[in-house]
Amino acid sequence: MNMELYRKLPIPMEIKEQFPLSEAGKKTREATIAQMEKIFSGESDKFILVIGPCSADNEDSVLDYISRLRLVQEKVADKILIVPRIYTNKPRTTGDGYKGMLHQPDPNAAPDLLKGLIAIRKLHMRALEELEFGCADEMLYPENHRYLSDIITYVAIGARSVENQLHRLTASGLDVPVGMKNPTSGDLTVMMNSITAAQHSHVFLYRGWEAKSQGNPYAHAILRGYVNKHGQSIPNYHYEDLIGLYDTYMASGLSNPAVIVDTNHSNSGKKYLEQVRIAKEILHSCQYSKDVRSLVKGLMIESYIEDGSQKIGASDVYGKSITDPCLGWEKTERLIYDIADLL
Asked: What is the pLDDT of residue 2?
C-alpha cells in the first residue's frame, strides 16, 4: 500500500464522551427534527431554508452569521424554519484545494484531522447550545458521520456521492431528514433510485459492524442543476422541472414526496447573486400550482456575511467565503423576509 498510516484517531464514541452534548442541546435537536418531519410529511406547511456558507471555515464568523439568523428566525417563525448550513467537509472536483474544517480547522495551516474532528463537533454544539439552532451538514464521508450523529439535524448527499452505495445505505439508517442531490449529469433516475434505497431497510457493513438500517422515510430530493456534455450549467428549478418531478414522485410510490431546491451551484451557474431571483421564481411556481407547493418544502441558499468569495490567505476578509461565492448578509436578510411575504 502506497500510503502512510499517520496516527490512530479516537473513535466517535471517545470524541462524544470527551465533548458531550448538553440536555438543552439534545432538546433543541429533537425539536428541530420534529418540526422538519412535520414539514416533509405535509402535516406543517412551513417552509425550510437550509442556508449558510458554502463551507464553514472559521468558528467566530460562522457563529456570528448564525447569530444573525437567530434574530431573523424569531420574526418569520410562523412561516419559515431556518436550518443553518455548517458544512464542515468540502468536496473538491479534482481533489485539490481546501477540503473543509475537518481537514483544516485553520485554512492557513497544515491539515490536522484530530483538531478538525474536535473543531467541527464544538462548532455544531455551540450552534445548538448557544444559538438554539439544529444545523445541516453534508455527509461527504459516511464513515465519519458518527462523530456528529447526535448533533446534526439535516444531512445532504452531494451530487458526486449520490450514486455511491455506502452513502445510500448509511442514509437509510439516519434519524434525520436526508436530501439526495441530482447528480452532476442531471439524470433524475439516479436521484430517485438513491431516495428509494435510502427509504428502504438494508443489512450492510458499516465501520466494521454488520449493521441493519430501518429505512429513512424522510429521504427526499434536492434539485441543484446539472452540467451538459459541453460543460455548461443547466438549471432544473423552473416550473416545468418542478411539475415533472411531482409527476415522477406520484408514479414512484415513495413516502413523503418532497424537494429542496438549491438556488446556487448549477442552478445559478455559480452566479451567486442570481439566488435572489431564482428563489422568487420558485415561490411564484408554488403560488401557481398547489401540486408544486405541496412538493417544494424549501430552498438551499449559499450565504455568508460578505458577498462573493476570496482566495485563502489573499485578503482574509472576515465572513467572506474561501470556496464558492455566497450571498452577503444584507441581501440574505432581505431575501428571507421577501420569501416570508411570498408564502
From this structure: 82
Model pLDDT for residues 41-94, shown as the tens digit of each residue: 999 999 999 999 999 999 999 999 999 999 999 999 999 999 999 999 877 666
Instruction: Let me know: does 47 contact 181? Beta carbons within 8 Å.
Output: no
Domain borders along the chain are 12-342
> Which cell numbers in the block locate residue 140?
461527504
Sign of dihedral through CA atoms 49, 182, 331, 280? negative
* Look-up of cell digits 416533509: 40
The whole-model pTM stands at 0.96
* Residue 123 vs residues 63, 89, 187, 252, 320: alpha-carbon distances, Å: 8, 13, 35, 38, 18
State the architecture of 12-342 in CATH terms.
Alpha-Beta Barrel (3.20)
pLDDT digits (tens, 9 = 90+) for 246-258: 999 999 999 999 9
CA angle 166, 26, 15 (to 5 degrees): 55
